[in-house]
Amino acid sequence: MQSIIAKNGCETPEPVKAQVKGSIPSWLQGTLLRNGPGLFSVGDSQYNHWFDGLSLIHSFTFGNGEVTYRSKFLKSDTYKKNVKADRIVVSEFGTMIYPDPCKNIFSRAFTHLSNVIPDFTDNNLINIIRYGQDYYASSEVNYINQINPDTLETVSKMNYRNHIALNLATAHPHYDDEGNTYNMGTAIMGFGRPKYVIFKVPADASDKEHKKPALRKVQQVCSIPFRSTLFPSYFHSFGMTENYIVFVEQAFKLDIIKLATAYFRGVNWGGCLKFDKDDINLFHVINRKTGKVISTRFYSDAMVVFHHINAYEDDGHVVFDLIGYKDGKLYDMFYLHNIKQETDNFIETHKSFSQPICQRFVLPLNVHKESPRGSNLVTLKDTSAQAVMQENGSVYCQPDTLFEGLELPGINYDFNAKKYRYFYGSRLEWSPHPNKIAKFDIVTRTHIEWKKDNCFPSEPVFVASPGAVEEDDGESATSEPTKGTSSVLLCF
Predict the structure, then answer these.
(1) Contact at 8 Å (CB) between 471 and 413?
(2) CA pseudo-torsion sign 459, 464, 470, 471
(3) Which of 139, 196, 236, 271 has the most CB atoms less than 10 A away?
(4) What is the pTM of this model?
(5) In this predicted model, what pLDDT tens digit does every residue of 172-188 receive, in sequence order?
(6) Residues comprising the binding site?
């Protein structure tokens, strides 16, 4: 894997037909879009972190048992500026850029002045989001770039702030059965009291005839004030049930003062995140139809969460499954000087990194002031998760551990926000390089794995069979770099 890490990718702008070994079901039709870092150096300059590489968007189009592939770099303003200068000139998460010393003093002074308030990169390399019928490359900042999902051409740059007061937003939204998109973000500077904002974009928001963006119809569901004004929670995703949004306000925080002065301190933006092991995580449960927040104070011990697996309601409880870490060191793992180490060396020098643990939390909704103190309020029989009433009326939640060593989770999305049985993901065992994929059965608490020597599969994507009755009736697809050969797309 080390020979592949941080190797510059290249575009395949015209569709290329794949060589198919075995068979692909004839019913598997459509296009799978993937996004991720694909360019790690420009000219003689290099990025420091895996999450800094310039976005390369891929498409795999299925039809009649065949697959065609194409890829294009996201033509963001960041990409254009870097290519024009033939060097990295825009700062990223783990790489802070300073003016070229060859510039004149006025150019350097202007560059320094413009960094008093950080204006984030639009290198949207994390995911593809659908708002209405518009598709956007996204990351976690206020900028997104619309793309054409058929040609992968970059259409236009969009700023959330032109439509809703946000400085940051997640790249992992939810879609309901009607096609509406739910997402959330953070309003930090210039928008009144700092708050987390949950918003909805209706399914019918697009107006392609008049080239009007779907975001023009964005609706704010609710806002939640920070519990610490200068240290808002970091969040990468959130949970959604049929009636509720679940937001985990973490002990993993963004230091606003450090962020505002990062450029002058010589600190990158990634260095502005801090984990407070002595703090707690708060669970906010919001009715997504009324926007009202449930008043009960649910909390757990401090942990770090990047990915939610799924959430649902069951007999008066909100059940949500997520992947938790004991600390905030995961981002450090992905600095390129770390991830390029041979696996044995990496394991030896990074034993302090915590494994990803799939955990189930259960929040009883019918909590009353007279509920007995010290009692477990969870009445579900299929979980050991606890929610214990405290003397002050708050509820301390302890999770049920489902599985250890799995990240980048996926489910049959037909079961999103519903009670479900299976999830899939990349198997990680004390190494940042996934060499297996796994399918976990929540009911039996067992799992099965797939692996092959020198194969490193990405996160699996599940597609249900037409008319499927069973939850796991379908295909899982994952792409993988394979040492010594061409990359492949696997269908299970």
Answers:
(1) no
(2) positive
(3) 139
(4) 0.93
(5) 999 999 999 999 999 98
(6) 172, 236, 307
